[in-house]
C-alpha cells in the first residue's frame, strides 16, 4: 500500500477549533521517535487513528515526516548554538568547552563519527550535548577526524578558541586528533583499565568461521579463567537446584544469619556482583565443609579449601578495581577521578602483601588476614600490574590537565599527589586565573605625556561626555592586584579545606560555595567539564545499533534522525 499525500480537513470548524493540527502532531511524533511512517500503515494502527481523529484523516507520508524532521533538526541545532554561545559569553575568549568523539563501524562497514559537547552552564550544572553524528566518509585517520570536527564547528559558527580539551580513546587513529587540532588532549584509558580484569577472569565472545562462541581472552591466564568458570558453575548449581537450596538453608541456619545469603550468578554488569559472588561462594562453601564435618551424613565434598581460598583471594585482588569502576560509572564521571583511580590501583597492586579490601562498617581499607595470596591470585595481580603500567604510559601528555581536574574536585583536592605536583598545579591554576582576570579587565593604553594641563583636562572632559569612566592607571593596577590577591587567598583557603565524600557531587559543593570562591568558578567550569571516558559516545552508538540495523529507513535520513532523536534525549533528558 503506497503512502498517499496527507489529506486533512483543517478547514472544518472542528479542526479550526483545535490549537494545533493533529496530523502535524502525529508527524512530529513520528519524526522524533525514529519511527518510519509505513510502520503505522498496519490495519490496527490505522483503525485506531481513524477512530480517534475521524474517518477523513490519513497518516502522514514520507515527505511530511521528513519535512518535520528537518524543521525539528534545525530547531535543535539552533537551541544548541544558543546554549553554547550563552555559555561562552560568560568568559569571552576563554575556552571552557570539551569535545569528546568516537568512531563506530556500522553493520554496513561504514564508520560513523559521534561528537559530544561537554560544558558547565551558568547554574554550575554539567551538560552533555550530541551535536553531530554522521558517516565519516573518508579514511579514519586522525587528520580526517580533526578536519571533520573543525568543519562542523565552522558550519555552526562556533569559535575554535572556546574549545579547551578534546577527549578520545586510546586507539592509534584517535589519540592524535587533539594534537592535530592544536588543543589539549585527554586520552581516556581509565575505564578500559578498570574493566580490564573482566577479560582476565571471564570468557569473552569470539567469532570463528562465522560461529560465535565464548573463549578465553588472548591476554588472560587460562588457569584463572578456568577457576572462575568453576565458581560460576557452582553458583548456578546452588542457585537453581532445589536440593542444593535446602542444603544451603541448613548452612544458613548453621551460620545463624538473619538475612538469607544466596549465592549469586554473576551478571557481568557490575564488579560488585562479581566480587560478591566470589565472597559469598567462599563463605557458604567453607561453612558447608564445617557442617559436613559435624554431620557426616551430608554429601561428599572436597576435603581441601584451596579452591575456595583462591576464590576469596581473587575477590581481594579485584576489590580495588570494583571501587574504581563504581567511581567511574557513578553517573557523569568527570576526569578528576582518573588519577585517584590509578593511584589507588597502583598502591594496591604494587604491594607484595597483603591485599586490602573495603570494610563493611566504614569506608576504609583493611588487610586480609592471610599472609600470602593464593598462586592464582598472585598471577592475576601480576598480570593486572603489567596492564596498569602500560596504561600509565598514556597519562604523561595529559597529566597536567588531569592534575588540575583532580585539584578542583573537592572530593580529592589532589591530596593523593606529591608535594611537587600540588605546588606546581596550584601555581599553574593561579597563573591561568590571573590571566583570565587581566583579560576581563584589560589594561588601558598608556596616555601620552600631555604638553600642558589644559590639554589633559580637555581629554578627561571629552571622556566624561562620552560616558567613559575616568579611572587612574594607578587605581586600575591596584584593583587588578587586589583581584589577584583575592584569587590567591581563595586557592589557599580551598586547598586547606576538608574533602567531601567520594559519592558526593562536586558541582553541588561548588554551587553552595560559589560566592566564597567566585574567582575560581571559570577554572571549575573548564576542568570539571572534562569527562573521564568516552562512555557517552559509546552509549550513543549502542542506541544507534537497532536504528541503523533497520534497512527500511532511507540511508540519507539515518544521520539526521539519529542526531535529532538522540540529541533531543541528551539535551532535554540528559540520558
Automatic annotation (TrEMBL):
One Pfam assignment = Dimer_Tnp_hAT
Q: Which InterPro entries match?
A: HATC_C_dom, RNaseH-like_sf, ZnF_BED_domain_contain
Q: Which residues form the HAT C-terminal dimerisation domain?
A: 492-556
| Intracellular or extracellular location(s) | Nucleus
What's any one GO cellular component for it? nucleus
GO-annotated molecular function:
protein dimerization activity; zinc ion binding
> Could you tell me the keywords of this UniProt record?
Metal-binding, Nucleus, Zinc, Zinc-finger
Q: Tell me the PANTHER family matching this sequence.
A: ZINC FINGER BED DOMAIN-CONTAINING PROTEIN 39, ZINC FINGER BED DOMAIN-CONTAINING PROTEIN 4
Q: What is this protein called?
A: Zinc finger BED domain-containing protein 4
The species this protein was found in: Symbiodinium microadriaticum (Dinoflagellate)
Print the organism lineage. Answer: Eukaryota, Sar, Alveolata, Dinophyceae, Suessiales
Gene name in the database record:
Zbed4
